[in-house]
Amino acid sequence: MTLLLALSTGLLGLLIGSFLNVVIWRVPRGESVVSPPSACPGCAAQIRPRDNVPVLSWLLLRGRCRDCRAPVSARYPLVEALTGALFVVMALRFGFSAALPAYLYLAAVGVALAFIDLDVKRLPDVLTLPSYAVGAVLLTGAAVAGDDGHALLRAALGALALFGVYFAICFAYPAGMGFGDVKLAGVLGLYLGWIGWDAWAAGLLLGFFLGGFFGIGVVLVKRGGRKTAVPFGPFMLIGAFLAILVGPELVDAYLGLTVGA
Questions:
Q1: What pLDDT was estimated at residue 236?
Q2: Residue 148 has what pLDDT?
Q3: Which pTM does this prediction carry?
Q4: Whole-angstrom distance, CA of residue 231 vs CA of residue 155
Q5: How confident is the model at residue 220 (pLDDT cuts 50, 70, 90)?
Q6: Which residue, 112, 86, 82, is CA-closest to 100?
Q7: Cross-strand partners of 71
Q8: Which partner for 80 in 17, 73, 166, 218 could form a disulfide, CB atoms 3.0-4.6 Å apart?
């Protein structure tokens, strides 16, 4: 049954990933994600349904438009495959629990926000702010279904706490962090807090570790300097996903190496 759940959610993730490609392109430009239908940017030919099958269509067309043969970015199947993979991982992590829909939503909106931040160095409020309400509703439903009010309270406190940490950093050093990161932090704190304070702490630390590691790498390969703007949202999201999956285990391993030494 677990394998069936993973396969079905993976297929759902591929389909949602196809839609996320539209979101990633249109939302930063203030365009509707519903209309007009997707079309080739080269020849403006509308994408046929048979050419809109996630990953497979891109492979069969060898990464080119059917009409004008213009190249189609490999990022389209990448987004679809990544979303599908995250959905599978979340299904394996949470199983047939009432919390699974909440974390599938986080995976989907997280992929969109990460790629938008990489593109335009901005985390759109139209995606971040509604995620508070969606996450609260889905996790409240999970708490009611599982009679787990403690997890819901911890999620609320986690959201406030992580928002507060990032707000303090942004206030102290506004040049180093945007307020979009602060708003995203509250969303991530909600989901991390639901799991536990060890996952919350791991998510916080992993985000800064990954972002700092990448920043150092940029300087070392001489692709930028200390003042080079690096979008931090993707690292916050990667750190949060890692913490959701293995955060408690990472904390236990760290404590075993330090406290137990």
A1: 96
A2: 83
A3: 0.91
A4: 26
A5: low
A6: 86
A7: 64
A8: 17
Tokens (6 digits) for 198? 């060890």
* Distance separating alpha carbons of residues 18 and 23, to the nearest angstrom: 9
Residue that has been written with the tokens 């007009």 in this structure: 36
pLDDT at 224 over 60: no
Give the torsion through C-alpha atoms of 38, 44, 48, 54, to 10 deg.
-50
Q: For position 254, what pLDDT does the model report?
A: 61
> In this structure, what token pair is assigned to residue 24?
């990633």
How far is the C-alpha of 76 from the C-alpha of 86, rounded, in Å? 16
Torsion of CA 210, 158, 9, 181, to 10 degrees: -50
The CA-based dihedral angle spanning residues 76, 79, 82, 87, taken in that order and rounded to the nearest 10 degrees: -120
Task: Enter the tokens of residue 53.
Answer: 């099958």
**Contact (CB, 8 A) for 13 and 87:** yes
Cβ density class 76-85: b for 16+ within 10 Å, e for less: bbebbbbbbe
The Cα 42–Cα 236 span in angstroms is 34
Going by the DSSP 8-state scheme, the letter that residue 95 receives in this structure is: T
Structure tokens at 141: 């439903």
Check if the beta carbon of residue 226 is closer than 8 Å to that of residue 219.
Answer: yes
Number of neighbouring beta carbons within 10 Å of residue 249: 12
